[in-house]
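User: Sequence recovery, please. Input:
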């Protein structure tokens, strides 16, 4: 599933491109969702101008080896030249901001539908989804994205926390919701899981699909998972006693592995046998003290017979 932000780029493009070097004089200040932000913004550039801007790694703890490859910003329609029949999830993050500056995202969506097969359209602005709900074609699903509970959805002047208790209203407009993963599994200040909430069941009871966001392999995850991102995914799709309908991840291969290979392992009635730990010193059965070496070296393979 290809995730594209409207206009093929983020509203604020300073943290993921070399735009500051390409256009040093184009720095601006705008108010977005009530917050003043300084930097370089997509609405100040034409598509042709952005072709000279190169994508860079936005998270500095990750490798920067691809920064010099020369990947440019893609528009939604550019996907057609790269991927045959792409499955597209289109995200419109700041419709109110665009509208204030004379850009009509509703018309943009209508034009995109004529050229690209869009499967999902999401936005953290319920007013925008309501505005396009009668105009989208085919089986396009509208998904309302929740932000921090204390923040305000400026399109309807309600906090996301208050909207959480009004899923019936959301169902009248959208077919699903996307929530930060902490909406489902809250985390204490010292980074341990609290009991899960009932939001998944409440969404399903309201007839809504529910997706969890904010997954990444290299973020600090709750200690309950023992630094294993696979275990975290499983807690949202099987081990937690409920299942979300999808996840938004910066490392989709890990999510795919968890769902495709491991999700049904623990619940299966098949006897998978005892795990056999193998190292270059032998196996657990032939040399019991290998367990001590294994724990010291943390280098092992686990096979299920």
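Assistant: Recovered sequence (305 residues):
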């Amino acid at each position: 599933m290809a995730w594209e932000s409207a206009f093929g780029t983020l509203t604020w493009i300073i943290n993921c491109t070399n735009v500051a070097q390409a256009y040093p004089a184009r720095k601006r200040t705008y108010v977005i969702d009530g917050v003043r932000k300084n930097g370089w913004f997509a609405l100040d550039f034409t598509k042709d101008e952005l072709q000279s801007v190169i994508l860079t790694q936005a998270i500095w703890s990750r490798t920067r080896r691809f920064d010099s490859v020369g990947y440019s910003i893609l528009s939604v329609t550019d996907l057609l030249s790269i991927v045959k029949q792409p499955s597209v999830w289109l995200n419109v993050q700041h419709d109110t901001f665009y509208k204030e500056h004379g850009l009509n995202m509703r018309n943009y969506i209508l034009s995109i539908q004529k050229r690209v097969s869009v499967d999902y359209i999401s936005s953290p602005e319920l007013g925008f989804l309501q505005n396009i709900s009668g105009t989208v074609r085919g089986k396009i699903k509208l998904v309302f994205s929740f932000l921090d509970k204390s923040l305000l959805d400026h399109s309807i002047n309600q906090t996301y926390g208050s909207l959480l208790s009004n899923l019936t209203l959301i169902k009248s407009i959208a077919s699903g919701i996307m929530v930060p993963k902490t909406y489902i599994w809250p985390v204490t200040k010292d980074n341990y899981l609290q009991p899960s909430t009932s939001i998944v069941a409440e969404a399903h009871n309201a007839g809504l699909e529910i997706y969890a966001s904010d997954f990444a392999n290299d973020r600090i995850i709750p200690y309950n998972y023992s630094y294993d991102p696979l275990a975290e995914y499983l807690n949202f799709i099987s081990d937690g006693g409920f299942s979300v309908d999808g996840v938004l991840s910066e490392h989709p291969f890990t999510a795919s592995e968890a769902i495709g290979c491991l999700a049904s392992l623990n619940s299966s009635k098949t006897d998978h046998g005892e795990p056999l730990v193998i190292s270059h010193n032998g196996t657990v059965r032939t040399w019991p003290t290998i367990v001590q070496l294994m724990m010291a070296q943390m280098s092992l393979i686990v096979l299920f017979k």
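Confidence is low (pLDDT under 50) at residues 2-10, 268-305.
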